[in-house]
Specification:
This protein is α+β, with helices and mostly antiparallel strands and 85 residues long. Helix content is 55%, strand content 13%. The protein has one domain (11-84). The relative contact order is 0.14.
Length: 85
């Protein structure tokens, strides 16, 4: 018997699992959705329930990590320039 894998693009997380994933409340997720600067992925509604594609969440996480790395490297460069004087 072989194990089958499901592509991340086909895996959905319901709202409570997204809250658990980020250890945030539903209100925080709501605020993230309304903050254009965060660009948090939009959910798909099945009835009145929200679901997110895991692949969309992973892309958002990667983008957040790139932003954070850029901020830290710019801060380090600024500190190195200031410390050399």
């Amino acid at each position: 018997m072989t194990a089958t894998t499901t592509p991340a693009d086909a895996v959905w997380l319901p709202g409570p699992k997204v809250e658990e994933r980020y250890q945030r409340t539903s209100m925080t997720i709501h605020r993230w959705l309304n903050s254009p600067s965060l660009n948090f992925p939009r959910p798909t509604y099945f009835g009145r329930y929200r679901y997110w594609k895991v692949a969309d969440l992973e892309r958002w996480e990667e983008a957040q990590a790139r932003k954070a790395n850029g901020r830290f490297s710019r801060a380090a460069e600024a500190g190195a320039e200031g410390g050399a004087a």
